[in-house]
Fold ABC transporter ATP-binding protein YlmA.
Amino acid sequence: MTGSGSSPAIEFAGVTVEAWDARAGAMRELIADVDWHVERGEHWVVIGPNGAGKTTILNAARARVLPRRGTIEILGAAPGTPGLADPLLRVGVIEATPPRFAQRMSALEVVLTQPASSAAIRGRRVSADERARAAGLLARFGGHELEDRRYGDCSRGERQRIQLARALMRDPLLLLLDEPATGLDLPGREAFLQAMSRLAAERPSLTTVAVTHHVEEIPASSTHALLLRERSVVAAGPVDAVLTDDHLAECFGVRISISRCNGRWAASIHDAVWEPATGLTHPR
Ligand SMILES: Nc1ncnc2c1ncn2[C@@H]1O[C@H](COP(=O)(O)OP(=O)(O)OP(=O)(O)O)[C@@H](O)[C@H]1O
């Protein structure tokens, strides 16, 4: 790793990402001219309507897509740098859609895929220490009874716990989570959010970025928020300054009332008209 300990966790400067739009027969912007600065130890939520560019931002941070313009630094170095200098070696990811290869593996094997290859796991070339660490992390998130269960048979909430344990196997300095609470029932969601807050308290140097659609899914430990609309940043900064009625109205295009109680957020929409034909909500 080339970056120093004091370098920011994430630095986007004027980042534009484009993709080919076959229908239009031209490139189109997925995010445009994004500046974003994340210090180490901060806990960010990224919020915005469908298609705003939230997943694209995470994909850019992990070099899944390359910027057309602008620069990205993760933990003080360019993501995707060859060899051990690649900062992505210290980045854990929880994806909205878990990897397909995982379906047939046991939960413990899925956790082990973070440091080891699946061939090594099949050939039992994984050390006893690694196995014990994976089992310990699984147990840490209430998944000890899942060890031998086929990942494909696990419920959504169980899979989230397995993915969290998997992401922590690399002892990440940065954890990226794409819609981690989607599909969880109420107790499952609360357990997951509490796990996130506990993690933040236990590992002060860990930085997290979680994409979410709903303010109710924001962990109480969140310190900062990034609001996106139509590819661009509406507001970014400390969570209390960013999550305001005005910013959310600008972000979602409807009047929203937001409140905070015991560290958690709740929102309701005013004067909104729902159109059954399109499924969209519009201001009255
Ligand atoms: N590879 C691609 N090629 C063309 N368009 C793409 C590609 N990837 C994403 N997009 C488009 O870019 C826009 C932003 O996508 P992105 O997945 O980042 O949005 P999002 O905010 O995460 O949305 P959602 O809340 O629905 O998950 C969307 O309109 C999407 O259809």
Remarks:
- Helices lie at 54-61, 107-112, 118-122, 128-140, 156-168, 186-202, 239-242, 245-252.
- The chain has one domain: 10-283.
- Residues 10-283 form a domain with the Rossmann fold fold (CATH 3.40.50.300).
